[in-house]
Write a structure and sequence with these properties.
This protein is an alpha+beta fold and about 170 residues long. Helices cover about 25% and strands about 40% of the residues. Strands 1, 2, 3, 4, 5, 6, 7 and 8 form an eight-stranded antiparallel beta sheet that branches. Helix 4 (about 45-55) crosses helix 5. The two termini are about 25 Å apart. The mean pLDDT is about 90.
């Protein structure tokens, strides 16, 4: 695992702490903090725990910030699902789909889902959206979120454009 602890400097500055302030609040020496910020040492778990606690983070959240310092770029995949034209990007914790469909199009058997929440946001047009015991009419600006494992149906009432987002339940917010 490669960690970039320069995030510590950013967190410290966001909270307007000097190295001495952070040292006093965490009980970690100023020299260790300085070395961590410059990636000249690897932090012991107790050190990382003490620093994370100052910022209201768990040690795993702090390490996650240090692990994920680079951006992730992917190319969209385009495909048809029934009459729905979909452009999709996939990341570890989410899938985002930009969909276009003409009036009359129906997606009654959406692709299999992981254990996700699904959000549909209508950007243009009008759809009838159905769950086992509910039906909703969604127009421009409307959105709905639900457990994606439930059977659901999209029926396009007017040509539409929408965003459909699958968000893993473990990473909801």
């Amino acid at each position: 695992m490669i960690c970039d602890f320069s995030i510590l400097r950013e967190l410290r500055k966001q909270h307007q702490y000097s190295i001495a302030d952070l040292s006093e609040r965490s009980g970690v020496s100023a020299s260790v903090i300085s070395k961590l910020e410059r990636n000249q040492t690897k932090g012991e778990i107790d050190t990382l725990f003490r620093l994370a606690r100052v910022f209201g983070l768990t040690v795993s959240d702090f390490i996650s910030l240090a692990e994920n310092r680079i951006s992730h770029q992917v190319k969209a995949e385009s495909y048809l699902s029934g009459d729905f034209r979909i452009n999709r990007v996939d990341y570890g914790n989410m899938r985002v789909m930009y969909a276009n469909a003409p009036a009359g199009a129906e997606l009654a058997t959406p692709e299999l889902h992981r254990d996700d929440y699904e959000l549909c946001w209508v950007l243009e047009g009008k759809i009838r959206f159905s769950l086992p015991d509910e039906t909703h009419i969604l127009t421009v600006g409307d959105s709905i979120q639900f457990d994606a494992l439930l059977l659901h149906n999209y029926h396009v009432l007017e040509d539409c454009r929408m965003l459909i987002i699958h968000l893993k339940k473990g990473k909801r917010f």
